[in-house]
Task: structure prediction
Amino acid sequence: MEKNYYKIFLIIILIKLFFAWVFPITTDEAYWLILGKHLDVNYYDHPPMSGWAIYLFSLLGSHVFFARLFTIFYGILAALGIYFAAKELSQDTAKAKLASLIFLVSPLHVLFVLIATDTSLCVFVLLSGITFYFGHSRNKTSLVFLAGIFLGLAVLSKYFSGLLLIALIVCLFVYKSRKQAVINSIILVSGAIPFVLMHLYWSSMNCWTNIMFNVINRNQNVETDYTRLIVFALFQIYLSTPWLLYYAFRNYRPIREGIRKERNLFFFLFAIPISILGMVSIQNTGLHWYFSFYPFLFLFLFYIPSENLRKIVKYSALFSCVHLIIVAFLLTLPVEIIQNSKHYKTLLIYCYGDEIVREIQKKYGDQYILAGSGYSTSSVLTYHGGREFIVFSSGSKYGRHFDKLNDFREYDGKDILIFASTEDYHDYFDQVTIDTLRIRNYDFPVTLGKGFRYPQYRNRFLVWAREQWYNIPDLLPVCDCFFIDRYFPANEKQDGSR
Result:
């Protein structure tokens, strides 16, 4: 099996490329493609690394496939990283290939073809962990410093990359003398801290939107739910697969002895973040939060006998094939099969957004500013039509980067078409007409607003948005805030004029 390593590697990458081409665009993908076109030092809901990466890959083409190449690149990087690190640890090329193959054929890798904000996190967590290992094992402080740089770039992807820092420092104090551990910890943090400070400065100039979105607004009224522990445990079994856990349990002693004898720090890089996420799962965690730490799991599996590793590869490959067959079958089904479902409308927007935009253009021309009532609809239709849809009076629990991109002062007195919303917008326009747009036997509601009344919109919706999304705590020093400066400057009158 390991003799065909590169053939299997190539086949899996080709399969992923195929699904990356045919799979319909998702809400988050469309949203981040828009952000990738608007390069910024900071984005509303996440640090900037995902937007920067999508911008670079989108230079190859405007189709979502090209942005998805970043995710496929991560898979290649992870598989090769596992191979080279396992080879260094085990001094056994065959076992290193088997460890890499277990990752390659796992559903965690095979099904990961869509754009996610976690992709850049996965890349830099992986690079940081593996670079740290080589620096640690070879006593090269330059590599430890480089691991810190990668960790800083991971922080520019998502905040919980900080869990890796905890694991890395634990490794230093477990395997080094106290003096060496302190010195290496300082070197590690020195590589990361410039990026952290830079991000904090950017945040202070942008309403602290990342902190507000991820730490404050999202965690209001979150209740403790111990059943989430069960979901957490089941999801870990799914990600690692039952057969891998079975053979790991059967070979617990050689794995434990191998980790101890060879000082395999990848055990800590996997176990510590996953354990912490498990403990906080009773509050609120995303099921995708664990992905970036999972490649480290495969780097202490090669202590399992080769015949068992081959069985894990075989069973995981079959498991992934079942997933691929199901996905391929679902993609061949016509959307009309769920015509009576409440999800039919959403699926039409995702799969046939191009038809929707064409019909809007055909029926209404260019006389209206186009809008959706939420970031999902606006993002997907902007992608399909190439014409920007703003977000109007969003009922979302959180703000989005559209708040920064759309300046409603510029729309005062203009005509706006709001797609697929049943809200009453009469207070915001001089004249409102309700129309329908029939797409594949579904009547989408369309609101045609003549003469947008910015002062009313500002005094009702934007005031509400300020209280909901931009109520920044006093402990965060605000140097600048686009939302407050734009709509609520200090020298304004009640109607928003100056």
